[in-house]
Inverse folding.
């Protein structure tokens, strides 16, 4: 690494989580605030030094050493009267025979997983969990979080404070035994990572359309669960689903930023490597007989990904998978997806009566999607007027500039 | 070849740079310095700590420098090698610090043995 001076992509982001986890394991989660400060401070020091001197020989070790020293100094300064057992424990070390620095990847990952489980604890609200996870495990700063989740800085700060306080109250222990217990909670982690991914993928906020950062962080964190979790069908299925979706990013947007609907996507743009990885995880998930929500969704995505052309899509199977999904977890969103599949499997006329009878549930974006599906179906049967009405109804519900652009384009084409 | 001192001025705190931004900052600088080295335009560079003091006049009054939040201060320096001030300025224009809206000052170091 020192030869080329190249840091891996997202090096700081990734190491932020690793360092915080390692420090929290040695010094205790009670030091969370000091740890976060020390890590932030360490990055700033790195910016000063590396900018002028180039990268050190072993950047991860350099970062961890500097952060540890900064943390020890802070603890010493702020709590002289407190028994310094913890500090001593972390100090019985010389640079070489230092147990702290011999932390293998396994241990660092263990600690990160425990921290991840703690951040995704159901005691917190969904949004709070996404925020604190991105903050602690992915090094997202306040402005970055505010931008990604479309909140203002103050609201983000408050949410982080709330979540940190909750983390401290639970006083979790980061140790190998706890790591084993933590893996049993991978389901709650999956929920949050799934939401994080979708936040980046669908609820797309800015002109770029897809916040790939959020998607890739969700994928990276889900991968952390893999080697530790007992081969969990849910984790594998979730990863498969994420990889299938990520593979289609480049085709989903044109260079100048327009949504490209599935039917019109250039399938040669789909990322083969990501697809292959998706199929790998799908294979892993198949080993268990448990067909959960992510598994069904991943199967559907895999069917889209294996069809060479849109016309080749096996809508019959997709329809039956959506039916299973609907039984498992009924929602207007899944119903709408099922109706789209049905409109291709059985023809658009077959779904109109059900479409017209839908009252969307409270979930954000559902009302918008309902109008979009209606417009799409009416467009296909040649009812320009009804399609136009549905698009007009969708316009004020659109959250994203790309959605608005897309609707206007379709309306002009009617 | 003449030597030029290039001072970087910026706010003492780095604002709230995120992990990604900090990484981008380091990488840009690294590549820039590598380029300078290749062209033989780089002699040395050092960062300066944000803390420091002023000592003023005969009374030797010591005060903290203006190294506080929101105030610009010198955060580091480079010694560049160039044939003229114009060339040094052109080199300095490539400094990625400018992308973060920092200020760069270039001054020729006067040689000792001027003939």
């Amino acid at each position: 690494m020192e030869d080329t001076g190249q840091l891996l992509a997202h090096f700081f982001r990734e190491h932020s989580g690793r360092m915080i986890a390692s420090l929290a394991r040695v010094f205790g989660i009670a030091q969370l605030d000091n740890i976060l400060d020390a890590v932030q401070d360490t990055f700033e020091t790195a910016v000063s030094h590396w900018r002028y001197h180039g990268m050190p020989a072993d950047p991860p070790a350099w970062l961890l050493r500097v952060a540890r020293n900064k943390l020890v100094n802070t603890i010493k300064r702020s709590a002289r009267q407190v028994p310094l057992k913890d500090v001593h424990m972390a100090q019985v070390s010389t640079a070489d025979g230092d147990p702290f620095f011999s932390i293998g990847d396994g241990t660092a990952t263990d600690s990160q997983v425990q921290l991840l489980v703690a951040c995704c604890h159901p005691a917190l609200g969904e949004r709070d969990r996404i925020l604190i996870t991105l903050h602690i495990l992915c090094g997202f700063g306040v402005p970055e979080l505010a931008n990604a989740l479309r909140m203002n800085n103050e609201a983000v700060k408050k949410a982080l404070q709330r979540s940190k306080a909750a983390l401290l109250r639970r006083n979790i222990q980061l140790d190998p035994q706890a790591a084993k217990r933590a893996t049993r909670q991978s389901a709650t982690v999956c929920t949050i990572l799934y939401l994080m991914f979708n936040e980046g993928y669908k609820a797309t906020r800015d002109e770029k359309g897809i916040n790939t950062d959020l998607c890739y962080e969700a994928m990276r964190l889900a991968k952390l669960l893999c080697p530790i979790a007992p081969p969990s069908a849910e984790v594998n299925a979730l990863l498969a689903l994420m990889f299938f979706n990520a593979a289609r990013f480049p085709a989903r947007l044109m260079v100048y930023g327009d949504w490209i609907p599935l039917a019109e996507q250039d399938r040669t743009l789909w990322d083969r490597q990501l697809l292959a990885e998706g199929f790998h995880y799908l294979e892993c998930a198949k080993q268990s007989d448990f067909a959960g929500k992510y598994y069904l969704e991943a199967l559907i995505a895999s069917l889209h990904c294996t069809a060479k052309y849109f016309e080749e899509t096996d809508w019959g199977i997709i329809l039956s998978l959506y039916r299973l999904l609907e039984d498992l977890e009924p929602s207007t969103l899944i119903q709408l997806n099922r109706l789209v599949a049905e409109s291709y499997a059985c023809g658009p006329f077959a779904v109109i009566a059900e479409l017209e009878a839908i009252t969307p549930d409270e979930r954000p974006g559902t009302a918008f999607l309902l109008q979009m599906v209606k417009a799409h179906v009416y467009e296909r049967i040649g009812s320009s007027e009804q399609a136009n009405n549905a698009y007009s109804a969708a316009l004020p519900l659109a959250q994203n500039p790309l959605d608005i652009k897309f609707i206007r384009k379709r309306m002009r084409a009617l | 070849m003449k030597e030029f001192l290039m001072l970087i001025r910026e706010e003492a705190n780095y604002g709230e740079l995120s992990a990604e931004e900090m990484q981008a900052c380091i990488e840009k600088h690294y590549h820039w310095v590598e380029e300078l080295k290749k062209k033989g335009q780089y002699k040395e560079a050092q960062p300066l700590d944000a803390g420091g003091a002023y000592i003023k006049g005969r009374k030797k009054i010591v005060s903290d420098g203006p190294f506080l939040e929101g105030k610009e201060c010198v955060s580091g320096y480079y010694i560049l090698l160039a044939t003229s001030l114009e060339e040094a300025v052109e080199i300095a224009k490539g400094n990625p610090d400018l992308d973060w809206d920092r200020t760069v000052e270039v001054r020729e170091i006067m040689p000792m043995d001027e003939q």
User: Anything to note?
Assistant: Chain B has two helices and six strands.
